[in-house]
Amino acid sequence: MIKNPYLKEKIAFTLLFGATVLVVLPVIFVLFYIVKQGWPAINWEFLTQMPQKGMRAGGIFPAIIGTLYLVLGTLLFALPLGVLSGVYLTEYARDNGLTRLVKLAIINLAGVPSVVYGLFGLGIFVVFLKFGASILAGSLTLAIMVLPIIITTTREALDSVPQSFRQVSLSLGVSKWQTIRHVVLPHAMPGILTGMILAVSRAAGETAPILFTVAAFYLPRLPKSVFDQVMALPYHLYVISTQVPHVKLEIRYGTALVLLIIVLSLNLVAIIVRAQFRKKKKW
C-alpha cells in the first residue's frame, strides 16, 4: 500500500499518460500511412474529373459532391429536430417513467448498427414512401441515425447550464421560452456544436445506410434533384477496394485521404464556431 501522496500522483499521471499515448499513437500512424500512400494520387484532375473506365481512371468529383450533399442534407433534417427534442426533454418534459424510458431508448438507439438504419431507410423511404434510391432517402436515413447523438449531446449541454441562470431570468418576468432562447441556448451552444461535429463525422463515413438508400455503383454525372442517386466517397472507396480489380493502390488511399480531409474540414469549421461561443460563456 503506497502511503506517499506524491508518489501516488506520479504513478497515476504515468498511467494516464501511457493510456493516452496508446490511444493517440495508432491514430497518428494510421493518418500518416494514409497520407503517405494517398498523397501521390491527389491532383486537380483527380479532384475535379468524372470517373472513367469503370472507376479505374479519371477522378472522384461526383463522389465528393455526393458526400457533401448527403452531409448537408443530414444536418438539415437532423440538427433542428435533434436540438428541439433535446430542449423539450430537458426543459419541458416532466420527470416520470415515460420520459425516463424515452431518454433510455434514445441512448440505446445511438448504439444500433448502421446496417439496421439502412434497412429501415430502404423499407420506409425507398419503398413505402416511394422516394426511390435518392439523396432525399439517404439524407433522411442518415438523419435518423445521427438523431440520438444530437439529442443526447444537446441534453447534456443544456444540463450543464447552471440553474441559477434560469431562476434569475424567470424572476425578472421573462417567459420560459425567452429564457431558453436568450439565456440557456447561447450558453449550451458549444455542447450542441459538439454533437453536430460527431454527427457530421458519422454521417460522412457511413457506408451501410447509403448502400441501401442512395449510393450508386458508377455514376459519372452530378445529381439534378434530391430524387437522384449519387456516388459517395465511403461507398466509392468500398467498391474500388473490393469490387473493381486492378485499381491502383494510390487511388484507393487517395480516395480515403479526400474523405478524411472533407470530414476534418467540416469539423474544423464547427470547432472554430464552437470556440467563438465558448468565449462568450460567463462561467
Low-confidence segments: none
Note the beta-strand portion: under 5%
**Whole-number count of domains:** 1
Report helical residue fraction: over 70%
The CATH class is Mainly Alpha
Tell me the distance between the termini: 40 Å
Q: Mean pLDDT, rounded to whole units?
A: 88
Q: Which class do the helix and strand fractions yield? A: mainly alpha
Q: Name the strands of the widest sheet in spatial order.
A: 1-2
Number of helices: 11
Shape: globular
Number of strands: 2
Characterize the largest beta sheet: strand count, sense, and whether it forms a barrel: 2 strands, antiparallel
Describe the structure.
By secondary structure, the chain is an all-alpha fold. It has one domain: MetI-like (MetI-like fold, Orthogonal Bundle). 74% of the residues lie in helices and 1% in strands. It has helices spanning 5-38, 44-48, 61-92, 97-109, 114-128, 135-159, 163-171, 176-205, 208-213, 233-242, 249-279, and strands at residues 51-52, 57-58. Strand 1 (51-52) and strand 2 (57-58) form a beta hairpin.
